[in-house]
Description:
By secondary structure, the chain is an alpha/beta fold. It is built from 15 helices and 13 strands.
Amino acid sequence: MEIAYFILDPFPSDRATSIEIANTVNEIANQGATVHLFAPVAAPREELEQHFNLELSSRIYIQGLYPCAAMRQKYPSFSYRAWLLKKLWEMSRWGTIDFIYTRGIKLASFLRRFAVPLGFRIIYEVHQIEADWPYDSRFRAWKNNRRERRVFNGGLAGVVCITQALMNKLNILYPLNCPATVIPCGVQRKFLAEELRLRPRISRIIHVSSLTFLEGVDVLIRAMQWIDATLYIYTRTRSIQAFRDMVAALGLRSKVRFCGPLDHGLVPSVLQQADMLAIPLPGENPVSRNSSPLKLFEYMAAGKPIVASDVPGIREVLEDRRNALLFRASDPQSLAQAVHLLQNDPALARCIASNALADAQRYTWDERAKSILTFLEGIKSRS
């Protein structure tokens, strides 16, 4: 099977999206498919392997319009789309591409308009619904909502959602007329802890975050007012001044420490230093409620007790008191109570850490790739 994977961001970028794409594409190639990845900017293969802590498959062919030096500059969208049109025309002449795969509404809309008339089958991986996204511009929100309606009104060969909550909402807004499936994100198999390493007392809480309003870091910081422990927050390259100001205003400088940036390859070793891991997704934000964050599976693989917001996307993977302790979303005191419970019940903490590690075996990137290829084979056999 040959797959053309189109992305809109530089490759790599500092976003979790880039990590998800790299691991998904690499494991699809490791399963025997050939993947052609097209990006506006692409680093050399050796730099990609170092950035993602991966050994890239020889069945991945990466093409970028601009050289790596252009990554710090905003690339012209028009020229990238013109380049993609040229690539689409070339691929239509090859006659070997089975599917075009993408995520992100702009590219999905572009491909529906130009790739479908050329006879390509498009698979759209859904990570958010545009109607839920809190855009800062009404015009931008209207434009992307219109794109989304057009995409789901026809032209897709298949849809992959990362959570059932997203799929349910999608079916309400846009009754799908194509095959659809739910396939969560994953974790590298080498991230799986070999054994549980738990200390007698929970005193070190770790949160890995991109520090956006979607991740509930403010809730976690506020909860530290009632928690006898130290919180270590690791990030990538985003600004954290607003959260530093919050910590200072609450008098929590001795209890909250900012430790970024963190290379992705170092995530397992950092998580092993934790006594507890936290996922404080806000409940009032529909994007967060329906999401399946990358950190969820990396935390499970670490073999540490997890406290997490009780929101639909999280509940599809985590079960209260079995592989995590769930608390009321956006409620700092509920979060603090969950931490207190695990601090006072080491047996429960060990139980949920052990179950989370066992469950992580089902959420590796290679398992995700197998599910995607099985879905694509089903579509191919029906056409």
